[in-house]
Amino acid sequence: MGILVADVIARPVRGTAEKGRLELVDEVLLCSGGSAANTGYVLARFGIPTAVIGRVGQDGFGDFLVAEARRHGAESLLIRDPSAATSATQVLVDEEGERTFIHAIGANARLVPGDVPLEDLRARGARLLHLAGYFALPGMEGVDGGPARDLFARAVQLGYVTSLDNVWNARGNWELINPLLPHTDIFCPSIHDARHITRAHEPYLVAQKLFELGVRRVVALKMGAEGSLVMSREGESYQLPIVPIHTVDGTGSGDAFIAGFLAAWLRGMSLEACAKYGNAGGAMAARAMGAMNGITDWGELEILAKQIL
């Protein structure tokens, strides 16, 4: 549940084009993106029955994202919104794989808690509710974080495990996430974002501060080239390195980390194993262009996870 985006990816982009000039690149790809789509579709690839909830427009990009949900094996609960365009991002990838984004928020801004059929999905056996893209979902944030807080509180009452990921907060009001954390079982921010939320720096202290803010069970910090730090409220912790791979494009790596972690969690694996499977998922995504093109299946994820000592 969360942000869904049509990603238009161009690579390699060499510098900034002058006005009126045509600059050539090797390839331009149209890919499904947005952290809800990325995480949900990777979970489906890893064998977890998944439904994806979000809003898209009545336009060509919306048609594409609906078709992509079906293609990736996820149940589509996408709402076609005639009043907003589908969210889209132009991703400019340079020769080193670094990315620059040009984004139109579109229909994602109109996603609200009432779009989420909690009771129906729970009756059908849903066990986990993942909200992806907080800080880019105004309808979930409201003025004080209340809409998402109330959604997660109800989900906990119904017996869901709740999981949360956020995106960069360009407005700087990081405290808007705080009301949601006491109703969040698993929180998976980047270390960069988590430092802004907690005003701490050292990763272990950052995780501890997040528990003080109310996270219920697990903090999983995505740390890029430094791997990840995963900690439970009881103090069990693992800081693990990345899987050694040739990085082509980091698009979706954090989302694939979350998918690997949650796929292992839903299979009842240990916290250490969940961290390893998360790192392996992130490595899969980074080895090809786009969020999904490097993702295969659970079997290869197991092989990659076993390479992490």
Radius of gyration (CA) equals: 18 Å
Q: How does CATH name the architecture?
A: 3-Layer(aba) Sandwich
* Overall pLDDT score: 95
CATH class call: Alpha Beta
| CATH T-level topology | UDP-N-acetylmuramoyl-L-alanine:D-glutamate ligase
Shape: globular
Total helical elements? 10
Distance between the first and last residues' Cα: 33 Å
- Helix and strand pattern: EEHEHEEEHEHHEEHHEEEHHH
Q: Assign the CATH superfamily.
A: Ribokinase
Helices and strands in order:
Layout: E1 5-11, E2 27-33, H1 35-45, E3 51-57, H2 60-71, E4 75-81, E5 88-93, E6 99-104, H3 118-123, E7 128-134, H4 138-141, H5 146-158, E8 161-166, E9 186-187, H6 191-198, H7 203-212, E10 218-222, E11 228-232, E12 237-240, H8 253-266, H9 271-286, H10 298-305
Parallel strand pairs: 1-5, 3-4, 7-8, 8-9, 9-10
Antiparallel strand pairs: 1-2, 5-6, 10-11, 11-12
Helix pairs in contact: 1-8, 6-7, 8-9, 9-10
